[in-house]
Amino acid sequence: MLRKLAFSSIKSRLKDYVVLFSGLVVAAATFYMFMALATNQDFLGKNSMLSANNTMFIFIFGAILLAIITFFYLIYANSFLLTMRQREYGMFMMLGAKTGKIGQLIFMETFLLGMGATLIGEVIGIGLTQVVARLLVQQMGLTLQHFNSFYWPAFLITLAFFLVLFIFAAIWNSHKLMKTPVLKLLHSAEQPARTQVKPIWLAVQALLGVALLAAGYWAMINIALLQLLAIPFALVTIVLGSFFTFNATFIWLLRLMKKHRSFSLRGIRNFTLSQLNFRIHDYTRMLAMISILFALALGAITVGLGFRNDLSMLIDSFDAYDVKLYTHSAKIDAEVAKLDIKEQATYSYKVKGKQIYYRQDQLQDQPLYYFHYQRSGGISMQMPQRRRFAAKDYQISRETPNGAVQNAYNQLGIKSIYDGNALTGHLVTAAEFARLPGKTSRLTLIRVRDFAAARQKIAKIEQAQLTAAPEFSEVLENSKYANAQMGTAMYSGMIFMGLFLGLSFLAMLASCLMFKILSGAYSDVKRYDMLNKMGARTSVLKASVAKEIGVLYALPGLLGIIHVLFGLQLFKLLLLNPYHGIWLPFLIFLLLYGLYYWLTVTLYRGIVIPKVEIDK
Amino acid sequence: MTNEVVTVQHLVKTYGKGNEKKFTALKDIDFTVENGEFVGIMGASGSGKTTLLNILSTLDKPTSGEVRINQQDLTQLKGNQMADFRGHEIGFIFQDFNLLENLTAAENIALPLSLQGVAPKQIQPLVMKIAKRLSIESVLDHYPTELSGGQKQRVAAARALVHQPTILFGDEPTGALDSNSARELLETMSSLNRNDQVSILLVTHDPFSASYCQRILFIKDGEIGSELRRGERDRAAFYQEILDNLGTFTE
């Protein structure tokens, strides 16, 4: 009977349960997806620029972060479940249901809900892994190898992790409900007491918060000065700074607004401000955590996309020329004719034993392009500049060849310079070249207008050259195209990780905030009912809800964005320009975050806004 | 020109839609409250008191019949008009005070004025005025949790009256008070009615509270059964008559 009652009350709150359940499903799906990557060594080894072991470490670090946030997420989801149910269970107990029986029911409910969500989440996770992987591969032109969307170890780890967490949650829920006096369960609406904070202490905390944040930001900007010490220093100061900022600075601002009566006594503002004042006290730790996680998630996405930007720039700097033609055939020529060529030049050479000869006049007529590396001033990454030698640079000399000539030997080489069988280059006049015995060979260097666009065509040319003249395989394997392929493979892992971690973090942290806010909604029902009786229009109440929740979402979001803007300084070590095109990840991120905000407001309104007509 | 603030004619309220089981909470109710009157509505639990009060305060809609407050037909009101009507014309006092715990007493009292868009500068003096009238000036800066039951109900009364509503509805306002606080509150309400011409409609099942009224309507199973008038008698005698009437009425 009791079981039937419990089930029927689930039906009456179906909408809230659907949200809770789907939230848990998303958590399980995300966790599975991440684990499918983190525990799949084949995938990591092939897709990361770091060695498989190192990547494993980074991914395990990410997995731990994800586990921690999933843990917090479950705590908030669980407390939402508890607040939703405590009145009903209190009622059953008042009606004489045995405590043990109730405990059992709660345990079953929490556990079944959790396990059901986990299994469905894993199935969805497998599907999503496949879809997301394919989508990323297509969208970004990445190459993912050894990617298997179904992976047993990941499936089992996810199941075990959620199983343990839900058993704890179930024990916690039944314990908490059984220990709470029945009367307290029935009247669970909280009574916010006056917050007794001395203004001086508040001011000190507010200043401390801002000062700590400033110190953290300073450390990140000056990473060159502080070296690796900057990271732990910034971490500690920013975490503490965020905490104090929420605990004092925002409260101080709210008080200021409340005190300003001509502002606060308009419409429902005073109520909204008081709700916020009361909430922020309760939410301090939560909001500080959200701001940090927000920064981590947004940072991960921004850096992920930053790697993508870098990739195209890096590829451009691999070689000054896009294609080098060592041999000719009808097929090769046909493919070359399809290229959108910006510039091309052909050079002759003769090979005699271990010696190779080039014509000075050809180089003087068509000096080579090259990349100039500036002496790096700091620790930040810089791109080389494309330059062109001058005709006078190509001087014949008996001593060690100068830079331009050495560069010509390298760029026009037909054997890998890294192997022992490299040829010794010589620069000779046209007359001397003609006198040399042996056959004259030609080498054509081509620059296209857009390497990325021409990549497919270049692939065909390279392949045709390899088949037509396998003796050039050494240089062909080191061509710009071959390097670009390798670079793409290496970076794609990093991009994927950044995007994936960022989006899953976002989903989790926004749901944490959502459930935390919704858990408080049931105790607000009476307040909104009262306001309704006092003649506050429904639209006014709705606006108040939107503003209150809006501030709770906006504050950690804003602080998080500031964290990221300063935090990107750290990535000057790894990225050419971490700030390039950041509007895109910011936009994606804010849209998703906004979606969660909208969902929270809608659900909250569903709980607290009184119906116009009473139906019994 | 009528002198009636509340007119109820042939009011019927039926719950249950479509093929659900129907339940008629109010069956053909007729009564009026005149300006400056202090009227009590008595009845046992389930007699329809709360339904009547909900309809009078535009929180619920009647199934049929007419309800007029201050010459305004409530059945014609829609959406925002209903909320605005509550805000302007009606003051509420409840059994459990219903103060907002996160606002101070003064802020609670100021809220109806803010909601009506009264300029912040004018709010402060109005709050002070009503607070003086109800002798709660000293607790204005306190939060509800720091007040006694009697003080809370006075703050609630101040909040109900600060915007000078047409009528004050009391829904068992003494229900959660000790006898001294209850007596004080009723004396205050009585004085507000006599000296400030506040019309009051008090819903209660407590004969002592009801004895402060000038006229009492007894409601039973959704119908008005009988009516008592205090006339020129003193309160103690009226109290005795209510008790007698209750004895016969409930049987």
Automatic annotation (TrEMBL), chain A:
> What keywords appear on the UniProt entry?
Cell membrane, Membrane, Transmembrane, Transmembrane helix, Transport
InterPro entries (alphabetical): ABC-4_Integral_Memb_Prot, ABC3_permease_C, ABC_permease_BceB-typ
Q: Where in the cell is it found?
A: Cell membrane
Q: Which residues cross the membrane?
A: 17-37, 57-84, 105-130, 150-172, 200-220, 226-254, 286-307, 489-518, 551-571, 583-604
Q: How does it sit in the membrane?
A: Multi-pass membrane protein
Would I find Phosphoprotein among this entry's keywords?
Answer: no
Superkingdom classification of source: Bacteria
Cite the ABC3 transporter permease C-terminal domain residue spans from the record.
Answer: 61-181
- Major place of residence: membrane
Q: Which family does it belong to?
A: Belongs to the ABC-4 integral membrane protein family.
Identify this protein by name: ABC transporter permease
Automatic annotation (TrEMBL), chain B:
Q: Which UniProt keywords apply?
A: ATP-binding, Nucleotide-binding, Transport
- UniProt-recorded Gene Ontology molecular function terms: ATP binding
The record's section on InterPro entries has: AAA+_ATPase, ABC_transporter-like_ATP-bd, ABC_transpr_LolD-like, MacB-like_ATP-bd, P-loop_NTPase
UniProt xrefs under Pfam families:
ABC_tran (PF00005)
Limits of the ABC transporter domain: 6-246
This chain belongs to which protein, by name? Answer: ABC transporter ATP-binding protein
